[in-house]
Amino acid sequence: PARAWRPAVVARLARTLGVVLHHLLMRRVVVTGGPGAGKTTLLAELAVRGYATVPESAREVIAARLAQNLPPRPDPFAFANEILRKDDEKYHRPHRSGGTVFYDRSAVEGLAMVHEASPLSEEQLNVHLAAHNFYRTVFVLPPWQAIYVNDTERDHTFTHAVAVHGQIVLWYTRCGYQINEVPCTEVEQRVNHVLQALANDA
Q1: 8 A C-beta contact, residue 23 and residue 91
Q2: Is-contact 26 99, C-beta < 8 A?
Q3: What global pTM score does this model have?
Q4: Is the confidence at residue 47, as pLDDT, over 50?
Q5: What angle do CA 81, 133, 191 make, to 5 degrees?
């Protein structure tokens, strides 16, 4: 009978609408840059200040493989697809509020890696980009040799980090994002720079 199922349908629609509104109201801000530029430190400070943050996927993939005594990276295409899969999963993961969420890199970069390993058509690229609605300004941390160190997951040279930085800037620009370069200074000042830029753009 119609009267028996209507409340259940309405409840499901309300939950669905709530999820959609939650995602629409969420401001997803990307913090990126080459390896060792201070992204993780900056996001840690944002977390201390109460903001939701999302960790980088590439380091998670490498750490998981090393824990299984595997080489840090599989072939480029498999590596890129696993990173994009994790980035996509994180994008759709619910957060505690509909406010600002900061991402250490993003699915836009995962897509760049896939495209580099196996070129996608312009239509395929546009479909992927449309599915991930990040804030139009991307905060890029430039290479900073004074703080650059290698670790278990970061085994590249500083020269490589500089090259990655250039590729990141070109890719986000190609994808229609605006670049805001975060100055090389104390982490508190870097966070203040990001937050002030967002406040000015509100």
Answers
A1: no
A2: yes
A3: 0.86
A4: yes
A5: 95
